[in-house]
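Sequence in, structure out. Go.
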Amino acid sequence: MVKSIPWGHNQRIVYKCQSIPEALFYVQKTMDNGWSRSVLEHQIDSGLYDRQGKAITNFSVKLPEPQSDLAVQTLKNPYNFDFLTLREEYDEKELEDALVNQITQFLLELGTGFSYMGRQVHIRVGESDFYIDLLFYHARLHCYVVVELKTEKFKPKFAGKLNFYVTAVNKQMKTFQDNPTIGILICKDKDDVVAEYALDDISQPIGIAEYELTKVLREEFKSSLPTVEEIENELSE
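Output:
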């Protein structure tokens, strides 16, 4: 395995990893995904080895075994959103805006295989309109992935809403070529026992994970910073 990746990658792995299993994990991931050295360093520094496959899911009972195993390994807990800088009292729209504006970094954090389909994706059920926070398609799982964001601690009702969205995507967007849609609920905090109970009677495959965000600014500092447009205008002058 070691001979299958560049020597520079091996150096980074040796310097940064704390155990042989961790080192071999990153060697295998580099082989599977063709990571550059900088991407490899980012994944090690973000602690991917300790986060991958740690979300609470019901995949083992809602998906067939080959897909369920891969789906479990696709999710992380927590997700690291430290590439964002938000005001201290941000809301869900601001978090969603920031993630879409940094979609390349967000896709890197989500992991290999995710393709961005859209935000606030409209679905109509009966006489009512609904909007999915973020919609992706996973090339390896061959399925749609519905992502809902919550800037508060997990509540059981969140799982019910996501279950509804996954059902709607299955009925309105999924084709016979696609595997069953999965849902990912990413929230600011969660009680693992509450999350497990909430998933017990959910009909669709859903995973629940937390996110980390350390770069927050008090409102007075946030408002005093120039926007990208202001910086560009200043440079052009």
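Check: The chain has twelve helices and nine strands. The first strand starts at residue 56 and ends at 57.
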